[in-house]
Amino acid sequence: MTLSADRPGAVLGGFxxxxxxxxxSGATAPARAARREAPPLVRLRDVCPGVRVDLRYATAxxxxxxxxxxxxxxxxxxxxxxxxxRVQDHLARQGLGLKVWDAYRPYHVQGIMWRIxxxxxxxSNPRRGSKHNRGAAVDVTxxxxxxxxxxxxxxxxxxxxxxxxxxxxxxxxxxxxNSRTLEAAMRAEGFFPxxxxxxxxxxxxxxxxxxxxxxxxxx
Length: 219
Description:
This protein is an alpha+beta fold. The chain has one domain (2-208): Muramoyl-pentapeptide Carboxypeptidase, domain 2. It has five helices and ten strands.
């Protein structure tokens, strides 16, 4: 299933799709055309069936202590999903795999998060929008063949110095090694890491994707 978020107000499969425009409209005509032609959002499992998905914001088991998504389907822009599929294939040859905690995030959810935890370095200001809102970022961890999570520096969304990229204080050598393994696999396919969160990676071409506010689909 694909969802095009490129036509404001378009309706596909029962969802109202919108592009969020921030500030004034200073974009040139070619820039606006490029945004209209942005690749669609797709279901990650359609492109990468081996990946595990546990969208934390579809439950109350997250740092915000509330459910923020209506659905549980992980979505990404099509080229980003294909990048992640290559990461999954590479890790599978090592007996490992990915579990996705967050992927595409509707723009309005960014505002809800900001109202709950304003001004934190761990959350993008909704004035700019998040790369998650573009379908170009993922929060991931490593799992073994059975789907069990490997030990990593911190739990998901622990906003502490231990979660910072390359942290060593309070982080065991095994957890450091697993984090480096994840980072190397993601970098190899064009994802760059967030310095504050070991789990967060962004596709290098994120700027080509517009902000979107289509709901996260249900099963």
